[in-house]
Amino acid sequence: MSYYKYHVFFCTNQRQDGRACCADKDARAMCDYAKDQVKKLKLHGRGKCRINSAGCMDRCGQGPVLAIYPEGVWYTYAGKADIDEIIEEHLQQGRIVNRLKI
Predict the structure, then answer these.
(1) What CATH number corresponds to the domain at position 89?
(2) Total Cβ atoms within 10 A of residue 82
(3) With bands split at pLDDT 50, 70 and 90, how would you rate the model's confidence at 1?
(4) Is residue 1 part of a domain?
(5) pTM for this prediction
(6) Sorting pLDDT into bands at 50, 70 and 90, what band is 47?
(7) Residue 14 counted as domain residue
(8) What is d(CA 101, CA 65) in angstroms, rounded to the nearest whole number?
(9) Do the domain assignments include residue 71?
(10) Cα(first)–Cα(last) distance of the chain, in Å?
């Protein structure tokens, strides 16, 4: 069994060359928001969920992006409502949110 049921990685990469990057779309704040929500819902910790920021995940053009493992599901999001939906559907119910999947 994996240490975490779900490990969520938010790309928070900031590119310096002007190309699209997740940091330009408030990815750090969304990662922090997800972390707070998961803690409030008591979904964090061993056997549950872990939210992490990540460097470039090489999909910034589709961003902002996050990936959930062990399934390897990638999502994009527009704001807190999308993050809430991913938490409720995927992390709590185990259902993929197809409208946000990339």
Answers:
(1) 3.40.30.10
(2) 18
(3) low
(4) no
(5) 0.94
(6) very high
(7) yes
(8) 9
(9) yes
(10) 27
Please compute Rg for the chain using Cα positions: 13
Q: For residue 28, which amino acid is it?
A: R
Beta strands in the chain (DSSP E): 6-11, 49-54, 65-69, 73-76
Tell the residue number behind the tokens 């119910």, with chain if given.
Answer: 93
Provide the domain limits for residue 72: 6-100
Amino acid 47 reads: G
Return the H-helix or E-strand segment holding 81: helix 80-86
Q: How many domains does the chain have?
A: 1
* Residues across the chain: 102
What 3-state class would DSSP assign to 91? helix
Give the burial class of 89: count Cβ atoms within 10 A of its Cβ; 0-12 exposed, 13-18 middle, 19 or more buried.
middle
Using DSSP's 3-state secondary structure scheme, residue 86 falls into helix
How would you list the strands of the sheet with 6-11, edge to edge?
A: 49-54, 6-11, 65-69, 73-76
